[in-house]
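--- STAGE predict ---
source: upstream dedup step, 1 unique chain passed
mode: sequence only
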Amino acid sequence: MNEDFLHYLWKYKKIDFLQLLTTNSQRLVIQRVGDHNLTRSGPDFFNSQIIIDHQKWAGNVEIHLKSSDWYVHHHEIDPAYDNVILHVVWEHDVEVFRRDNSKIPTLQLKDYTEKDLLHKFRKFFLHKESNWIQCEKLLPEVSAFTIANWQERLYIERLEQKSKLIHKLLISSSNDWEAVLFKLLARSFGLNVNNDAFLSLANSFEFKIVRKCSEDVENMEALLFGQANLLDEKFDNPYQQRLVKKYEFLKHKYTLKNHGVSPFYFYGLRPSNFPTIRISQLANLYVKNKQLFSDIIKTNTLTTFYELFDVSATDFWKTHYTFDKESTFRNKKLTKSFIHLILINTVIPLKFLYAKKLGCDREEDIFSLISQLPYERNTIVNKFISLQVPMEDALHSQAMIHLKMNYCNQKACLKCAIGNYLLNRRGN
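--- STAGE serialize ---
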């Protein structure tokens, strides 16, 4: 038994609410279960309403496995629990009292829980098998309708989660959406290995400098390569020498400092993902698009985004991956798969929060755009596909990644629509 299951029983009224008695045999009527407190501080449910022997009470409800846990957690001396009107437990083993020594009524849930529901909970969610996820063997039995609806809700949750970083950047950038976009794009260009380094690079100067340098691609590259500490080692080629001179001028003009920029990693990366290539592509993107934020906000079709992000690295990088070594000619344009990652991780979350800040409902546009993107292929997505979970587009893959990381890994089955489906379906 665990407290999450008790919260579930109480919150969703999965007990016989019409025949309740307290442990002192008083008639108990639940008018309102209350608001679930999802923080770790204070009683479990706020603003509950109950009637005990015709006396109405309004206050909070606390839930424990045993009544004695009240004292284990020292609630008897905590003023936050003075307004608890009902103690809900699985097993009542001791009477509990508030700070003023008044006794708190107790409801023992094991007397009112259906045996079938309890059996399913123990069978599905308390087994000790080392499955990839708790419901791995049962997942193919879940209805497609349940999964599809849950995927949409999960994707919105994922957007809300990604919005937290954007919101922090918005505050630190004095609500400059263009600056936030630049920082988010830089982070995306760094991918998993260099995302923090690229973000520290974008944070190392004010965005107004980008606006001024984006008139000339070598100025823009000099700014980024210089701030990234990638011009420190001098090589015998005219391109790098020009960048060094331009950066020295920019450094003096704008009083640039880059001590806080994290180191960039090359080892283990495919050459096309080297920081040098991604920095040049980012520079060219901002030279090409002077109103990138407004263009992104008004664009909702994949083909238009392909045009918007149709940039390549500067000519020097078409025959180089590093400053010192020449390589076979390659165009080094942003690929469609890379543009998809930018849309998933930067553009759509930004559009989502921007609409939210304006008080606009743009969920339909968001769903339309993410549904135009193919689903990602990684270990999590591939495993769900093997378990027969529908995977048609990036909305589905993003939803299932969020499910695995925030529900399955946390064993939060009782908060999951799939877990609820399995727990409440008829039969086994």
